[in-house]
Amino acid sequence: EARKQVEIKSTPYSESRDINMIFKADSTLQTIINTFEHRTTDPNEFENLLSVMFHIIKGSSFDLLLSAASANGTLPALVSKLLFFNEGTQESMGESNKVAQNRAALFDMTFLMLVYMVQCFSTSVLLGDNQDGFFPRWAKLCMPEPGHVKPLDSFKELGCQESIVDGLLQQVMQGNIRTQVVMWNQVCSNVHDVMKEILLGVEMGSINAETYSRLTLPLYNKLCCLPICIGSWLVSMSHYGEGEAKGQRPSAMAVLDRFINISGEEDTDTRPYFAKRSNLMTNILKKMRREMEEPIQAENNAGKTQLSVAFDKLWESLWEKQLLDIAGTKEMAKLFNIGGTQWFMEMLVEKIVVQVYQEDVSRCTEMVFSIMHIDLAACTLSLLLYIIPNILTGNSLSNCLCYPAGNALARLTVSALAAVLKMKNSGPYVTKRRLRSVELDDLCNTHTQPVKLRKLSSMESVPGGDPSLQQEQLIVQAHLGLFELLSGVGSQATLSPKLEFVACILEECVKLRAEDCSTLLSPLSPSLVTNLIKLQPDRFPIQTLVR
User: What is the model's pTM?
Assistant: First the structure.
């Protein structure tokens, strides 16, 4: 059924947002999809397909088309056709030089367009019937997404082969990567190892700056998707602590900048539509580069400072009253909403740490536990995934382990965990937000958190994305993650404040009712208990060990 034309009245808003251009892109999009439906990956079609795709990505057309496609539901169809063309141009049993150049350009163009779409919509845009193809597999294993950098080991799962790496290195040394009868999916799977060998040569001193510049040029001047594959590896390498400069070796960011700023963007007969491909590659690499940069937080820090002042003022008022009344709870909830869970928990824990007398520490801990009920699940997840791991790894608030703060923090951790395990579906006191599941996922799956949660398999995932069930799964995983961390800390051979904290956690668990104690200690490692008893034989009486 044909869609009805909607008459748009001219307003300053519609002109500024260019609504008419998006509607025009909507009609153009349907024409493009219909054109793609009648195209195949026969070599005779390559030039026509390249021409169509050039018009898709020139100027701001691609962004407008993606906006229209996501709005009218045709995005999956567009992705499906691009995946089909990309898959169909990966290899050839035999071809002329001209056909090989067009096949390489079409593979390159579709690869770049798909990467750009994943950067806009995440890998969820690839859901469909083409899950086993090369590109969906590469994107899910290797491509960095905003806030989600893939592990280095994932690159090995692409099937890297030394013979292919050696062949590519030889071609790079000769200054030209061949295009005839080449399996481009294998090249993309191995090109990061080629860059790795070049960087190793620079580090060892066998490759000077001039040779390095010469060797990196062939990795760019035929297919612009090769720097994308290298860039993904560089982002992962940088994120996992291996991207720093060593000797003469440039840093991962410097290598990425080399591809962003490289020259030679003209079209030629052997490089059809290369200038536009190069421009699209540059935009993609710039987005990847942001994953390697330290976030600029000047404004955020200023805002957080003001929030901290407001928090301190409110806390002093509540502390004098010795009561958390309804008005105070509402004000705390406002600060929680503005500052976020992690900031909020850091402020609360700091209040426990600054107390000196045992009586004040106990009263403060009880008040903090009460305030955490503003959103008990989120606050507990923040405590288990950020606060406690950072303290035990020495990244922040190391004085938290000193008496009496360490004991109080152990009691708070156990109390919060016991409560949230009994009320896994508890909602927040604050106004219920529509994207609750997204907020919890962001809290539990960022690349900055010390404790990583295990990814759920398709059999474990929640059908329909029920937020309450997802919250329950995250709590259970955080519980397991905490005890894994405690097992690591508890394996130390000498007494330390960290080991004392672990012992306090176990003692606080034992103080609970038998049912709650059993639930909390279910992930407890026997080796942890054995090591604690070995170091402190008189610490745990028989009654405690029996429980």
Answer: 0.55
